[in-house]
Design a protein that fits this description.
It is built from 11 helices and 14 strands. It is an alpha/beta fold. The chain binds 3-isopropylmalic acid (IPM) and manganese (II) ion.
Length: 348
């Protein structure tokens, strides 16, 4: 029995998650017994329990095989003192999900590289952070501050994971930082240099984040594994999503040292299109592809789902956000897309 916790979240979260659930339920045809548990995260959890992530959900997470998350946030909570996004940061931290793998892959364009984003440290969590008041030039003045900070252990565990993943790929790692300015990056490079001595057959390259954004557009084919900090990983993954199509297509897996994995698309909750049945479900469906591969260790199902998704696109169907890439395609709804993928997943 595989226990899956579903946290649809806010905005388009429930409608895209529903497409993933169709596929999960179809796994019964492939001999799997699956138990689905539903709960809340983000704004819907604030509305219900006054917290974006309840202790109850954390408890469930600690005893579950897999977590599938939609997305969080929305206009409704813009002025709320507690933000839906805090639920996401909390679940990542509480479950020790220190690495976030975001594959940039498109069979149409022959693109295939991984962004490995640090997910438990850096400026997202660094202390001190806050908004305070201070007298500056004799005037009481507000200031906001965050701290970009990494310790040796956080860097080592992420880099080791990256090197180990690289052994099964092209043995090529690019680390992206800002070591010409930031001390956290200087330490990062030093440790990278040290660890790389244990992996002599893996080539290692360093890029500064500003120049990396150019290389990622101009020479994206030369990357295989990119490893970077929490904030840089957040930014470049959105940028790279355009290489494969749209932001709606990017999946991710977050992992810790135990067996708990969290799967979620990289995109936000898109409150402007929520409830209209037009959102692109590919991000969460590709997250499921990763779940089949990494958690169920079932490469056959993982490939089957991956090619079912791309089959629909190549047969000339897409959601409205992809229209600019597939001019002649027919625009279909979120649910229609999910149904078609599910059909090919079962019968093809
Ligand atoms: C992401 C998102 C989140 C992040 C937000 C919603 C807190 O942008 O997963 O990339 O910044 O990590
Ligand atoms: Mn992001």
């Amino acid at each position: 029995m595989i226990n899956i916790l579903i946290l649809p979240g806010d905005g388009i979260g429930p409608e895209i998650t529903n497409q993933a659930i169709k596929i999960i339920k179809s796994c019964i045809f492939y001999g799997y017994k699956i138990n689905l548990i539903y709960n809340y995260i983000g704004g819907v959890s604030i509305d219900k329990f006054k917290t974006p992530l309840s202790e109850n959900v954390i408890k469930i997470c600690l005893n579950i095989d897999v977590i599938l998350l939609g997305c969080v946030g929305g206009y409704k909570w813009i002025n709320s003192p507690i933000k839906p996004e805090e639920g996401l940061l909390k679940i990542r931290k509480k479950l020790n999900l220190f690495a976030n793998i975001r594959p940039i892959k498109c069979p149409f364009k022959n693109i295939d590289f991984l962004i490995i984003r640090e997910l438990n440290g850096g400026i997202y969590y660094g202390k001190p952070k806050g908004i305070s008041k201070q007298i500056i030039n004799n005037i009481p003045t507000w200031y906001g501050y965050d701290t970009e900070i990494y310790n040796e252990q956080e860097i080592i565990r992420l880099l080791k994971l990256s090197f180990n993943l690289s052994l099964n790929r092209k043995k090529k790692i690019t680390s992206i930082d800002k070591a010409n300015v930031l001390y956290s990056s200087k330490l990062w490079r030093k440790i990278l240099n040290y660890i790389s001595k244990n992996y002599k057959n893996i080539s290692v390259n360093n890029l500064y984040i500003d120049y990396a954004t150019i290389e990622l557009i101009k020479n994206y084919k030369k990357f295989d594994i990119i490893v970077t900090s929490n904030i840089f990983g957040d930014i470049i993954s959105d940028q790279c999503s355009l290489l494969t199509g749209s932001l709606g297509m990017l999946p991710s897996i977050s992992i810790n040292n135990k067996s708990i994995c969290l799967f979620e698309p990289c995109h936000g909750s898109a409150p402007d299109i929520a409830g209209k049945d037009i959102a692109n479900p590919i991000g969460i469906l590709l997250s499921l592809v990763m779940m089949f591969e990494y958690t169920l260790n079932n490469k056959i199902l993982s490939n089957k789902l991956f090619y079912s998704i791309y089959k629909i696109l190549s047969y000339g169907f897409c959601t409205i956000d992809m229209k600019k890439y597939f001019f002649n395609s027919k625009i279909i709804s979120t649910n229609e897309f999910g149904d078609l993928v599910n059909y090919y997943f079962i019968y093809d």
